[in-house]
Design goal:
The chain is an all-alpha fold. It contains eight helices and no strands. The protein is elongated, with a radius of gyration of 29 Å.
Amino acid sequence: MKVDPVVEQAMGDSELRIGRNLRRIRESLDLSQQDIAERLTKLGHRFHQTQVAKIERGERAVRVNEWIAISEALGVMPMSLMAGGLGTDDAVFEARLQFERMRTNVEAISQRLYSVGLDLEAATEFYQQALQDYLHAAAEAGQEVQWSEVEVGKEWAERLKNSAANEYAVDLEELDGKAKSIFEEYRRGMESSEG
């Protein structure tokens, strides 16, 4: 099958653009070609330093799955490797690269915050159950428990209110309120058993 010369030229330009951008991003991250090859191998693509060098020179074609893996290895969006023609202004390219890094960073932090939120939800459920079990056992044994022994640290909720994690302050305040009601139930039970 004969490839249209215009399409062939566009494909060649894409290869050169990916290679050029790979080199620029790699060098800005202070990574060697071997570092990139190792990262790609860890991502499931068997790469050697020489293959990375050929891609950077535009001598080796890049498959779509490799293009995506290369961008992942560099920590940028795939389109960053296709950015601009060969005459693209370096300042624009560097600004775009910095933007892509920051976007990737924000997405990673957002994912961690989401995971922390899920962990906090699970921990609060376990905490409430453990508190109920502890107070129940103490009540059965006739042991006095003070609120200060079981209170959730309010100072952390106050600190969180003034931070980007403000929504977790609300979660901690809710946990404190639930713990307080569990404790009050325990106190009423202790008072009724004394009377």
